[in-house]
């Protein structure tokens, strides 16, 4: 019987890991896994710069969208609150 892959996404460990949970909520999880796979294969972060940059771009887009959402919520709550 083959041993499970260290990057098997069905492991319970990933469900309990707060970092894994946070990344999965961003929509960038597959890109994060691509960075991990590259690092596991090459053991050299310089070889994985394309994967790192793609993951970084995804996270930056998520953070920008999240910031805009929070600003909209804040402005909507100040407009509706009585003065």
Automatic annotation (TrEMBL):
It comes from the Eukaryota. Residues 1-13 have a biased composition (Basic and acidic residues). One of its GO terms (biological process) is mitochondrial respiratory chain complex IV assembly. GO terms for cellular component: mitochondrial intermembrane space. Residues 1-22 are annotated as: Disordered. PANTHER family: CYTOCHROME C OXIDASE ASSEMBLY FACTOR 4 HOMOLOG, MITOCHONDRIAL (PTHR13639). This is CHCH domain-containing protein. It comes from Amphiprion ocellaris (Clown anemonefish). The gene is COA4.
């Amino acid at each position: 019987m083959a041993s499970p892959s260290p990057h098997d996404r069905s492991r319970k460990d990933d469900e309990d890991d707060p970092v894994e949970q946070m990344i999965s909520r961003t929509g960038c999880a597959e890109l994060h896994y691509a960075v991990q796979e590259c690092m596991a294969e090459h053991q050299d972060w310089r070889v994985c710069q394309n994967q790192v940059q793609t993951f970084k771009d995804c996270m930056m887009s998520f953070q920008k969208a999240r910031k805009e959402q929070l600003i909209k919520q804040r402005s909507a709550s100040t407009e509706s609150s009585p003065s």
